[in-house]
Amino acid sequence: MYAFVVMVLLNGTPHFVIMERGLTHSACEELAARPDSGLRIDGKPAGGEGRCIAEDKLPEIDLGADGPA
To answer: Which residue in 15, 43, 48, 63 is deepest, having the highest Cβ count within 10 Å?
Structure first.
């Protein structure tokens, strides 16, 4: 499975935002090919490059039972 990830610069620092997970490669490529990644910051489209990353390559995030703290 793949994740659709957008890389944006916030205050000069690159950040990766996971937009969708559990995608097939072809579904992820369709999202990456769109001109608008769907990412919004303060309600405005965020310019950033969308890409597909295999989920097993993403860093482990332990959300626990209740989600993020």
So the answer is: 48
